[in-house]
Specification:
heterotrimer; B: mainly alpha; Four Helix Bundle (Hemerythrin (Met), subunit A); C: mainly alpha; two-stranded antiparallel ribbon; 67% helix; globular
Chain lengths: 97, 198, 740
Amino acid sequence: MLADALFFSAVLFAIGVVGVLTRRNAIIIFMSVELMLNAVNLTFVAFAQVYGYAGQVFVVFVMTVAAAEAAVGLAIIISIFRHRHTVNLTDINLLKG
Amino acid sequence: MTLFYHFCFYLFGLVAVASACVFVTRKSPVAAALWLVNVLFCIAALFVLLDAQFIGAIQVLVYAGAIMVVFLFVIMLLNLGEPARIADARGTLWYIGAGGLAIVVLAAMMVRLPHPLPIETFRIAADSLVTEARATGAVAPVAVPLFTEYLLAFEVTSVLLLAAVVGAVVLGRKRNESDAGPASQPGTAGTGTAAHAR
Amino acid sequence: MLFQTAAAVAGGAAPHPLSGTAADWVWALPLLPLLGFVLNGALAIFGSAKAGPADPSAGSHDGPDAAHGVPGGNGQDDGAHADAAHAVPSQRHPYAWLVSVIGPLVVIAAFALACMICVAMIAAQPTTPFIQRYFSWMPVGDLSIDAAFQLDQLSMVIVLVITGVGALIHIFSVGYMRDDPGYPRYFSYLNLFVFFMLVLVLGANLPVTFVGWEGVGLCSYLLIGFWFSDRANADAGKKAFIANRVGDFGFMIAMFLLFANIGTLQYTEIAAAAPAALPAGGALVTTVCLFLLLGCTGKSAQIPLYVWLPDAMAGPTPVSALIHAATMVTAGVYLVVRTSMLFSIAPAASLTVCVIGAVTALFAATIGLKQWDIKKVLAYSTISQLGFMFVAVGAGAYVAGIFHLVTHAFFKALLFLGAGSVIYAMHAAYHETHSHEDAQDMRNMGGLRTAMPVTWILMWIATLAIAGVPLFAGFFSKDEILGTVFARAQGSALSDASWLGIPGGALLYGVYGICLVAAFLTAVYMTRLMLYTFHGPNRTGDAEHSLLREAPAVMTLPLVVLGVLSAAGGFLNDPSFLPIAPADMLGRWLEPVVGPATQQITRGGPAEADPRLSAILATVASVVALAGILVALLRLKPAALRPAREPQPAESKVESLLSHKYYVDEAYDRAIVTPTVVFSRNILWRGVDGLIDGLVNLTALISRWLGDSGSAAQTGETGTYAWALVLGVVIVLGTVALRI
């Protein structure tokens, strides 16, 4: 089942990449990133079946980090929205020098 | 491995992929979020099928439950308006480019897979996870290494969560509290006045 | 003592006879004036901070030279310049009294130390130089240059002259510069000059000498332009500096060649290695000597680089006496004698020295005949006398050259200081009546002997000395030069060599003849100077005449000392045919230094002409000198002169040529200065600079274009960066997965 799980994982990851690259809504981009993290988690669990529980432990860590990231990221989005009244990333180009 | 097992595995896998495709193409953030929840549920099912019952459970609890609720909550909070009015997705060219890229990534992975992995020696006996889970329950095999071998990482993760909480509070706080005038001063008779002024 | 351990032992294992004597203190000789420089310089800085802007840069100075314009074509500046001088009352520097003590005292102390060292040297009679090594200055690969001083009989003589005459001139300056606002600055420069001059003379190798050589050039520049608020003075300083750079180029090339071929620059080692490493009369040694000579012509104001010296008279008169007559300009002569071991094996180069000296002597003497500025006359006289010294050292008469250097230091210092005294009196008189006349023009003088009898007598002594009247100092030294040149023409290594196809013997006879003519002209122009300045009716002006008076004692006393030396200095090297003093003292004293080189020239023969021939030649020279004086006395009519403010009688063509100094300055201007300026402006500035600027700007444009296009890629949108990131990931994954 390892190869099949990895295949699904890869496809889901790629869909996540497509979401990040094509969407402009910051929240949807964020959710795409979550999807990519889940695809990776699937890989970890698939390998854990073959190589032991360490992979599953790692999934716990990834979930924790994802939760933290969601908290901070959404706070940032709220903060940006409060100032600019948009979450459209093409309208937010503060990085331009 | 039974046929039913295979059927379930591919069913959930394909549903996950299809839901993901729908997820990235939704204009409305709320719809996208709900489709993503569907994907996460499917992945949770895959976790269970891959002998990770505990991980599947927290996937439902933490991800599909907690995190996605936060997302939905933020979407509602921002109240971004009608989906039709939001010119969100980029043009066709971007889709083609992104799709091409995704195909390249996939191809690269598929080409990479057939090579024998150099970690074959760490391979454990087949069904050992199932045996262990039957002996001690589904949680213990994950919890024991987490609190022994990876204790330091676990503690550091708690610090990370603390930092995230502090960061979220600082970022989400309103900046102009001090400009609010008498209304923000507690213990005065001005509370009613302030409410009146508003 | 600090340096005792470092004192190098010359001449094998045995300690040098001078070690353990006063000569151990040789390091203190230059250090004393340096101390004076530091102290006076500090006073100049702090004093000006305290008293406000008092230097000429603030627009006013009141030195004796102040109210005269720089002679030679810028008389129109006079009025405005003098007005500025009169507008601000004379203002003594707040620390002048302290400077008056420190400035001369350090030089007097150095002179006293030099005397003690000299006594020790007379007692020890060393045959090798006493070398004191302080530290390794430039240890680079094969090149190892030490900061070291070398004391031998030659440097001893010059050190005595520098410190002795220098001390007298310092004392004179106390009076002469008394009211100048830049008084401490003046003395600090003067002290610094003495320091560098001593470094030049005491240097044990060419680079150390070169440090002193450059240092005195710097001081010369600073002191010529001492009153730099007047543009002409500053220009004169620059001219001196630039002319000297041309010479320094020669000096450096000579050093490089010597190092490349001998591998050492220390005098003792050059002397030891030269005969073996450099074939006598070969092209290499001749080239080295000619480049050295170029350096010497710059410093010693010989043709073709003499033009700076007359302009250098823009500086204060004591500076002219010390730097541009007595000491610095003789550095070229000193250097030729110091490197005589090279010149003696390069007859062609030696003959060149001779020819340049003779031509310069005659050339400058003729110009001196028609100058009206008293200091210009003396300046051309100095050039002429330096020509005599070059003739001497070129002919291998090193002793005679140094002898003339010493006596010339005495009488030319006296002449300059006497002229300074006259200018001081003239200026004071004109200052009193607020007149803007030129205080240096001899046409404004005349009849000063009644007002300044002491100066008058002393100046006559110096005039007789420089003219070569028997028993005065110049007689002995000039006579020895002429006699030795004649003897060399009769038979020596030089007379057998040839110079540009001319046989050396004939050439030397010619040089002798030119020198006789130059000596005659010397007598003429010096008598002319005396006649016009001190005799005949006074032309200063009716009001000013009664105001002329002798300078204070602090100025006349040094003159008296120099007068005694000018009168009796010749007995330092009394010729054998005139048994008054111990014969040939200087010659025997210098024997250890210049003996080998002289022997090389004479091929083992006697260094000088035999006594009978010397006596005959001396008689000839005396007759020539006396004839010159007589001709001047008979032909020149001081009474016929008109003051400079009145229209002058028309000049004949020859007179005009002489008074315009053969138009050499104009020729140099046309031939060198203008083409250089035009070339720099049109080709270098507009052309090459434009090209380089264009290249630089092009680089800037390219960078800017690259930056602009780079910044266009930076949209500031996170989406773009995500794309770039993913592309990068794909490329990395692709290369790994496809095993490219």
